[in-house]
Design a protein that fits this description.
mainly beta; four-stranded mixed sheet; four-stranded antiparallel sheet
Length: 123
């Protein structure tokens, strides 16, 4: 469930004020599309995440990837279960955690992408 979202450019970061709560309503992916944003102009993707404690043990991880206009994925996806990109190094259910991912981990040609997909991997 998306609680709120907006985008802003701040010192090289693409900041998504996107608060995602993984719960019993299940989602397979949340796609954020913008034809106005050139990912090549940014260095970071940032958002906050809270995984509902009740989603455990069904919950496995959350993935993040970029997608092009044909919905083709970037060469690399970031999984947040245990990751250097999530505050505290791993998902801690019931806790709001900040996620900061350098966009270059998604591969070259960032300007080819216009979607951010936040993917449920088992939620």
């Amino acid at each position: 469930m998306i609680i709120g979202s907006s985008a802003a450019r701040l010192s090289g970061s693409l900041i998504l004020q996107l608060l995602v709560l993984c719960n019993k309503s299940n989602f397979s992916a949340i796609d954020l599309k913008s034809y106005d944003v050139n990912f090549g102009d940014y260095q970071w993707l940032e958002f906050d995440l809270n995984v509902d404690k009740k989603a455990i043990p069904k919950f496995f991880s959350v993935g993040v990837e970029l997608r092009d206009s044909g919905y083709g994925p970037s060469p690399f996806r970031v999984e947040l279960l245990q990751s250097q990109f999530i505050e505290g190094g791993e998902i801690k259910p019931g806790t709001w955690q900040h996620v900061r991912i350098p966009l270059d981990v998604f591969g070259p040609l960032l300007s080819d992408y216009n979607d951010i997909s936040i993917i449920s991997l088992g939620c």
